[in-house]
Structure formats: structure tokens, C-alpha cells
Amino acid sequence: MIELLAAFTTPIEISTWMRTLLFFPLAFTIAVVYKTLRTQHLKDIPLSAAVLWITIIAGMYAVATGLWIVFQIMI
Amino acid sequence: MSRSQTPPLLRVALAGFLAWIVPGLGHFYLGFRKRAIVLFLAITLTFWAGVAIGGVRGTVNWRDRSLWYMAELCTGGNTLAATALHKAVGMQPRARGTLPPYPGDWTATDVGVHYAGVAGLLNLLIIIDAVARGDLSGVKRQAGPKKGGAA
Q: Does B51 touch chain A (CB under 8 A)?
């Protein structure tokens, strides 16, 4: 029980790359919740959520790449 | 009194309140049970994953991250439980008027806050959806059942 509580009281150590990877599950949650609310038939949720998940990740990385390029040009 | 006999206004209010206390419970109450289980798992796992990543003192912090805390409060039951845990382990002490202490693990706390805050904001969508479905379910009952509505 104490070990379980300690897991929620002590922050974990994460690297820059791990922080980037932790965006994936968060985007997955957003996609699943949105499609669960919007899709009429439950059997359509997995595919439509996966498509939305990939779209969010691709879109966010495209924005990040664009901002990185602008940043490199301005410096 | 069964759900079908509940007055529409009470049904809508109850669905919204239940969705706030436990993610998905409003949908469960309205009869959308499979959707409710998916929503419960998605929100609860995300919220507590955020708390596990960032630690409860940094993630659920009404003093130093009040706006994020308001977002987290949209998933009421989870945040109230996490707040109780935070109070049980104690707030990090700091002198009045000083900036919050950011130890070496501040990146983990930032990620955790985003997880818990996004879980709260997503639950706000779920609450609105439960309220809308609760309102519409009365209309559907009067018009007759429609194929493919409830799951």
C-alpha cells in the first residue's frame, strides 16, 4: 500500500526524448474520448480513433517542425 | 422512480452531476453503458497517469497551478481524491512571496499537469455530452426508439 502511494507522490525522472514520447498516449486519449462521444456506432471507434490519433500526432509534429525552422531562420 | 419516469430537468442535472463525479457515470445512467466504460477508463487512466508522472504535490496543486487545478476539477471525483492525497502527504513548504520550488524533476511535473488538466477538460466535454444526451433521450422516448442510438 505504501509503495502504491509512493508511486503517486514521487515524480519520475524523464528525459527530453521521453517527454516527446509521452505526447503519444495523451493524444491517444483525446482521440478515443472525442470519437467515443461523436461516433454513432461503437464498432467504428477503434479505426476512427486511430486515424484521428495519427492525424493529431502528424499535425503537431508538422507545427513543431515549422516553428523550429522559423526559429532557426530568425537566429 | 425509474430513469424513464424521472422528470427531464432532473434527469439532465443528474446525468451531468454523475458525469462530473465519476467520468462516464452520466452516460452509464442514461443507458450508454459501453461508451461509459470507455470514457471512464480513458479519463481515469489519463488523470492518474499524470499524477504518477508528476507526483501529486506538483500535479494537483491549487496554490501554484490554480488554472490547471480548475481544469483538473472538471473531473471531480478524481481531483477530490487526489486533493485528499495531496493534503495527506502535505504541501511543500515555502516562504511567503517566493516562487514555487522547482527541483530537478520539474519536467515530470509539467508533463503530469498536462495529463491531469487535459483529462479534466475532456471530462468537461463528457459532461456536456451527457447533459445533451439526457435532454435528447426524453425526446427520443416520445418519438419512439431509434436504431443505433444507445450502445
A: yes
The CA distance from A29 to the nearest CA of chain B, in Å, is 6
Q: In this predicted model, what pLDDT tens digit does every residue of B30-76 receive, in sequence order?
A: 999 999 999 999 999 999 999 999 989 889 999 888 999 999 999 99
- How far is it, in rounded angstroms, from Cα B68 to Cα B100? 15
Compute how many other C-beta atoms are within 10 angstroms of the C-beta atom of residue B75.
29
- pLDDT at position B148 over 80: no
**Residue B97 confidence (pLDDT):** 57
Q: What are phi and psi for residue B115, nearest 5 degrees? A: -60, -50
3-class SS letters over chain B: CCHHHCCHHHHHHHHHHHHHHCCCHHHHHHCCHHHHHHHHHHHHHHHHHHHHHHCHHHHCCCCCCHHHHHHHCCCHHHHHHHHHHHHHHCCCCCCCCCCCCCCCCHHHHHHHHHHHHHHHHHHHHHHHHHHHHHHHHHHHHHHCCCCCCCC
Give contacts of B58 with chain A, Cβ < 8 Å: 11
Grid coordinates representing B94?
Answer: 515555502
pTM (predicted TM-score): 0.84
- Whether A46 has its CB under 8 Å from any CB of chain B: the answer is no
Q: Which of A1, A3, A5, A12 to mutate to test the interface with B (most CBs of B within 10 A)?
A: A12
- For the residues A51-74, what does the mean pLDDT come to? 95
